[in-house]
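CORE FACILITY INTAKE
Project code: CF-77B
Contact: R.S. (postdoc)
Sample description: multi-component assembly, two entities in total
Requested service: structural model of the whole complex
Turnaround: standard
Below are the sequence entries exactly as provided by the requester. Do not edit them.
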Amino acid sequence: MRRPRAVSNNRRRAQEFIMSKEQDNKAIVGRWFAEFWGNTWNPAIVDELCTADILLQYSLHAPRRGRADVKAFMTAFREAFPDLSFAGAADLIAEGDYVVGRWVGGGTHTGPAFSDFLQGSLPASSGRKMRFTGTTVLRVQNGKIAEEIGLDDGVTALTQLGLIRAA
Amino acid sequence: MNWTESVTPGPVHRAAQSVLGSRARLKPVTGQEQFMSSTVSRDNKTIVDRWFTEFWGKCWNPKIVDELGAPDILLQYLLQAPRRGRADVKTFMTEFREAFPDLSVTGAGDFVCEGNYVVGRWEGWGTHTGPAYCDFLVGCLPAASAQKMRFSGTTVLRISNGKIAEQIGLDDGVTALLQLGLRGSA
């Protein structure tokens, strides 16, 4: 067991500084998930919380780069799935510049034809529903989201949407 | 769960600090707590690093399950049914490696570690040259199918008293199952 005295004041202050940054990063990611991925979409959040060259990468979709591209991605996703909504499924885990979130959510395809899934297209108003889980690792740089790299449970989602089938 | 409520926002934290004064510490901020917590994090990373090397890496060491797995360890990935307990976890890996003798997983990025949790990103691959394999939830591979898989994943591990209590992972199952011929485009 280490004694409290073994920790120098500078060491302690450094730890507090790091911890405070991780709490700030979690707060940023909390807002991002609520306003980008939650049930209410606020397009202004992209300019507010993302770096200019933000990378958004999920296993179901082609990667997107930059604020305009990321906004276009979400705008089209929500036109196709107007009830789209994702929410946290466990506490956020943060260390250094990274925040990891586990989530669950989905939506119903009632909008125009959607061709953004790498595996295939949905015809307009297909009525198909998806609900699946995922894990996302975000890198926060000076208070802005620089990278969002996630894995979706694509087998579940694409099977529900009828985009993959038993071989 | 609402993440905007599950954390202490930085600006609020700082504002409260200035109102309450530097002696009124909001959790979790004591230096000693943080120091202890970072020491635990380092130990947890060492445990997970060994686990990835000896459980998932090129050199499979079955004893690692008894050494580093909690008695009721939970192993859960999307492609296979969840496994519970050391014996079940050993069986899982023994059969996986009989089917895919060249199975190997390596880290892809630094661990992210907080409290009892360690998150690892990885890339794994293997060739099915062994007996018929029916552990994938979506279907069976016939013996020596020669199908190859190469895919990425992210795993969240929970460490309790120096042992791995939970290993819950997401794999890029679409990539793996298309490569193995177990799923096709609709």
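Facility notes:
- The helical segments of chain A are 9-37, 44-49, 67-80, 154-160.
- The longest helix of chain A spans residues 9-37.
Invoice: internal transfer
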